[in-house]
């Protein structure tokens, strides 16, 4: 069996993968069981001379080779901040209003991908399988193909794909599509993402769906399929340092854990909690919202704006409802140690996960995994998180609908034990089945199969599958007036 070559913007420290959590665990696990190489940026910003470097620093951990390169500050500004974080991240999360289409950044983005390809190329062997991660590196396969690389190359996008009309707003959308077409397999989080990408490729890049379900575009054929990212359930729950505390009677806690990002819907979440307190005076003094929101990408101005907005909002809500012995919102703008998250999740009555848009959202899965099966808490989940496609037994809400979220908070706090257990049983089952190891295995098996036989069983009618997924989420949504009752499908 050939080696696995992982490529990502940052290379995780595989000796500390368990603490990093999420997919670092699965990727490190794959590299443990098979010879491999992990290639990417080393996190350092050097001077201009580093733009000429195409010989990576090499180190070894067991049978894994780690190969990394620095970025110059000009590259960091154009490739990372300018294009990846100020264009691709907002547009793919359907925030055209925040995107900054400034000239020069795309060229820098391409140049870094080209330099990465030049540095990776001499390290490759003919039977390697290459797996590239995320939006920073869309053009990498095309740059490798230009250098003559014929190996199977797969790409996994961790963030959502926007509807075609939004994708089309990116000035360089066709260059990005051409880049995607250089992969053999493009993996996305959900069926809805697959539908969006195929829609775009047909309308914006004149792609065709072939009989076997693959897509032909720019004279290449690629398979596009969904591989929902999962968590390492046992690893996550098992890492707690002490016996987890169960919930204490008295004050019920609602927990939110989100990087402080404008996609995570934090102001809407705070407003919904405020609306809930305004409408349910009997709950004042009996419930708190604890929001852990570690800082990220602080050099990007939109992140400073969201931070200011949240600080103002939490201050005004606490000022309006708080008492000397009760503060309604605990807002923590710091990272919590990973092993304490299990404890915090488990002792919280409600998990409030309401992003405006999210590729998957692992916090939703971690919250359920941490629950006590005999007395589980309730997950409230945005219909716009990729996780909603799998976790339909959560209380599914529209994060733009403040009243609906306020109602869902009340429903969750008052849900009887039996109903909570029913929801939990069905959710934990799916989370255990589609865990992080299954995600990693199924993607690599699909890619290697494509490499060997050139075919892969993908849904023949991906657009139909996407439509069905959307309809199922709408059916699962909490109805604002009738609590957890599902909306009955229209009889006609
Ligand atoms: C991207 C996509 C997709 C958060 N706060 C703390 C902390 N975390 C951990 C959580 C969770 C992870 O970070 C966050 O993962 P998410 O999936 O929720 O979101 P993104 O960071 O936006 O990740 C996303 C994911 O990639 C994987 O494909 O699901 O849609 O946007 O594991 O627990 N960990 C610690 N302290 C914190 O304060 N230790």
From TrEMBL:
One of its GO terms (molecular function) is alpha,alpha-trehalose-phosphate synthase (UDP-forming) activity. Its EC number is 2.4.1.15. One of its GO terms (biological process) is trehalose biosynthetic process. Pfam families: Glyco_transf_20. InterPro entries: Glyco_trans_20. Gene3D superfamilies: Glycogen Phosphorylase B (3.40.50.2000). Signal peptide: none annotated. Keywords: Glycosyltransferase, Transferase. Belongs to the glycosyltransferase 20 family. This is Alpha,alpha-trehalose-phosphate synthase [UDP-forming]. It comes from Hyphomicrobium sulfonivorans.
């Amino acid at each position: 069996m050939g080696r696995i070559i992982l490529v990502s913007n940052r290379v995780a420290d595989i000796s500390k993968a368990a603490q990093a959590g999420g997919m670092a665990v699965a990727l490190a696990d794959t590299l443990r069981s098979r010879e491999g190489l992990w290639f990417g940026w080393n996190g350092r910003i050097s001077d201009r001379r580093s733009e000429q470097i195409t010989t990576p620093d090499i180190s070894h951990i067991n049978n894994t080779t780690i190969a990394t390169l620095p970025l110059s500050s000009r590259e960091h500004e154009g490739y990372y901040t300018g294009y990846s974080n100020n264009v691709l991240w907002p547009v793919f999360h359907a925030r055209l209003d925040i995107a900054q289409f400034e000239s020069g950044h795309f060229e820098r983005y391409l140049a870094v991908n080209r330099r990465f390809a030049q540095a990776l190329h001499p390290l490759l062997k003919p039977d390697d399988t290459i797996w590239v991660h995320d939006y920073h590196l869309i053009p990498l396969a095309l740059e490798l193909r230009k250098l003559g690389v014929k190996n199977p190359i797969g790409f996994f996008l961790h963030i959502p794909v926007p509807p075609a009309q939004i994708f089309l707003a990116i000035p360089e959308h066709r260059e990005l599509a051409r880049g995607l077409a250089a992969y053999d397999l493009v993996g996305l989080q959900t069926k809805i993402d697959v539908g969006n990408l195929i829609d775009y490729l047909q309308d914006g890049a004149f792609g065709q769906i072939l009989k076997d379900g693959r897509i032909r575009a720019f004279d290449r054929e690629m398979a596009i399929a969904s591989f929902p990212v999962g968590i390492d359930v046992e690893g996550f729950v098992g890492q707690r340092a002490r016996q987890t505390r169960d919930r204490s009677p008295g004050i019920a806690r609602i927990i939110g854990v989100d990087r402080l990002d404008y996609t995570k819907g934090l102001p809407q979440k705070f407003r919904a909690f405020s609306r809930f307190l305004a409408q349910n005076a009997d709950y004042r003094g009996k419930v708190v919202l604890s929001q852990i929101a570690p800082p990220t990408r602080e050099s990007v101005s939109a992140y400073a704006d969201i931070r200011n907005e949240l600080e103002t909002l939490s201050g005004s809500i606490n000022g309006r409802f708080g008492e000397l012995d009760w503060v309604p919102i605990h807002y923590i703008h710091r990272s919590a140690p990973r092993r304490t998250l299990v404890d915090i999740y488990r002792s919280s009555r409600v998990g409030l996960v309401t992003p405006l848009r999210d590729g998957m959202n692992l916090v939703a899965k971690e919250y359920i995994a941490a629950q006590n099966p005999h007395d589980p808490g309730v997950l409230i989940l945005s219909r716009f998180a990729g996780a909603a496609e799998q976790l339909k037994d959560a209380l599914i809400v529209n994060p733009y609908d403040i009243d609906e979220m306020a109602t869902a908070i009340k429903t969750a706090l008052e849900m009887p034990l039996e109903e909570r257990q029913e929801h939990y049983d069905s959710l934990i089952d799916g989370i255990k089945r589609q865990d992080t190891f299954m995600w990693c295995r199924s993607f690599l098996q699909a890619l290697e199969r494509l490499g060997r036989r050139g075919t892969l069983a993908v849904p023949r009618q991906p657009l139909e599958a996407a439509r069905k997924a959307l309809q199922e989420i709408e059916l699962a949504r909490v109805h604002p007036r009738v609590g957890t009752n599902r909306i009955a499908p229209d009889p006609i």
